[in-house]
Amino acid sequence: RSSIAYDRWWEGGTLLQKTRGEWFNAYSSIMAFTSTKPELQQEVEGYTHLLARLMSLLMCCGLQQVSPNRDRPFEIIDLDGIEPESMDFLNQAPDKVEIILQWIQRSMVLHAQTGVLPIAPPILSRAFQEVSRGIVNLQNARKIADFPYPFPLAQVSMILQILHWATVPLAASMALPRGWATMFSFCSIFVLWCIHFNAVDLEFPFGSRANDLPMMEMQQDWNNSVSTLLDKRATRPPNFDYNPRKHQELAIVMSDASELYIPTKPVLNKGVARIRIKQIHKKKRANRASMGKNGAVTEKSSYVSETGETDVEEAKEEAFDDEIGDALPVQIRSSMSSVFNPRNRPGIPGSLSLISRDHHLAVDDQPANNAAESRGSCFSHSDTSIHRDGTASGTQTGTAPSTETGELQRVDAGAAEDPDYRMVVL
Description:
- This protein has 426 residues and is mostly helical.
- The chain is 50% helix and 11% strand.
- It contains 13 helices and 11 strands.
- It has helices spanning 2-33, 41-66, 84-92, 96-114, 121-146, 151-175, 178-202, 215-228, 232-235, 244-247, 312-327, 330-339, 371-375; strands at 283-291, 297-305, 352-355, 361-363, 366-367, 378-380, 385-386, 392-393, 398-401, 408-411, 422-424.
- Helix 2 (41-66) packs antiparallel against helix 8 (215-228) and helix 11 (312-327) packs antiparallel against helix 12.
- The longest helix is centred in the N-terminal third of the chain and has 32 residues, at 2-33.
- The radius of gyration is 41 Å and the shape is extended.
């Protein structure tokens, strides 16, 4: 219960600060959007003073909503000048924050039409969004004020503490000497009840007790911030007398004009991150004609760079794929070309990394001893294996070479369409 009470106290303060930040950003944005035309300065000044009073009243009503006493007084900027009819309507409204929020948003729309806020609607919508986010945070703070700690849990906690208070002295007197029993009973009961009363004191953080949130100081600070932006010097950015010879150096000084801070401990050198740009050359595929083993003219392709030079590495891979593909079944050609690619599987123990032109196999860049050894090898997937006599075991498909002719033969074992084929040596 103490942990939950502290979480409620901390979350309440965080939500009030978020509400203040959102509403001040909206107020500052509206002040920055006002017109600078000389003929509209009277209207601009009147609107900014009305807005300042509405923002002060908005924060006051927001703090009253989360307070245990909804009629708790807070400091606000004087409302003299606002029509009494509107104030009477506000006093009769069940939710004053919603009415004031509507007044602020409506005043933005009306003054945007009169030229007091000569800003594009998409940019002006930023102020609307910040005002709306502020009231969302306020509603989350009201959740803490309106929903107390569950009554059954509070009663169970109190009953358990009373049992603890009654049984600990008896148990300690029977198990420990009189002095130690007295000290142990007092300390354990005292600490437990202190934690309990701390939880009770922190469960409702929006009151006026000593450990509650400083809501009165929050309202005073809010009024000071709102009043500061009404000053003409706050609405005009300062002039800067730029001197190239002096200001190009960007001298570093202390904020209080004292000597620069010199660290006593050496600064840890974390190194410098370097960004390297890799040159990527576009390649195009060029067709070329070649004579096949059976005398037929076939068309093959190679990769040619933009400079017209043939990429030797890509050409080797293309020839490698063509040679392996002619000897394998159609179902596994596409997967074999990527699995047996030396660049795709570098340095993987037990994997096939090279096939010579006469179909001799090599494992881990170690060539097979002879053609018979290569003919005794097989292709398989996962745990499926094809033995030297040409028989297959497993539930998937592979290719096995014949022991007599050395030619690759297809062995069906139930998964001819599996794309994840690998080549291993038994």
